[in-house]
Amino acid sequence: MALNTTFFFILFLCVLSTAQSFEDDCVYTVYIRTGSVIKGGTDSIIGARLYDAYGEYLEIKNLEYWGGLMEPGHNYYERGNLDIFSGRGECLSGPICALNLTSDGSGAHHG
């Protein structure tokens, strides 16, 4: 019986520490619609910075890895696509008022 009690206590501590590690994080959702012009898509790694009015920002180096929500095997950033990303990050001091998308320059049509 003592083994079961000890096991559940350790399990509780693990869950508690996991919950506390996300306590100061916020959830962000980013929608990106790729243009519909010829060669409008890209195979590059796309990153983003989300800025608040105070100049603070959250940097996401790879949106797809950070929180790509599309089905497995989805080809992100293709011409005309709407891609959705959601993930956790440090909370900013104010609402988001600017976005800077970046391309790492790899892959076809990286401009």
TrEMBL record:
**Which residue ranges does UniProt annotate as crossing the membrane?**
none
Keywords attached to this entry: Signal
Query: Which residue positions does the secretion signal occupy?
Result: 1-21
Q: Which residues form the PLAT domain?
A: 26-111
- The domain of life is Eukaryota
Known InterPro entries for this protein? Embryo-specific_ATS3 (IPR010417), PLAT/LH2_dom (IPR001024), PLAT/LH2_dom_sf (IPR036392)
For whether the record's keyword set contains Signal, the answer is yes
Q: What is this protein called?
A: Plat domain-containing protein 2
- Organism this protein belongs to: Quercus suber (Cork oak)
The gene for this chain is PLAT2_0
